[in-house]
Amino acid sequence: MSESNPDKMPVIRNAILVLLLVSIALIVHNIFGQNGYLAARRQRKELQSLQERILRLKQENEQLGKENHALKSDPSAIEGPARGMGLAKPGEKIYILPDQAPAHAPPPAANATSPQP
Question: Cα(54)–Cα(46) distance, rounded to whole angstroms?
Answer without folding.
Answer: 12
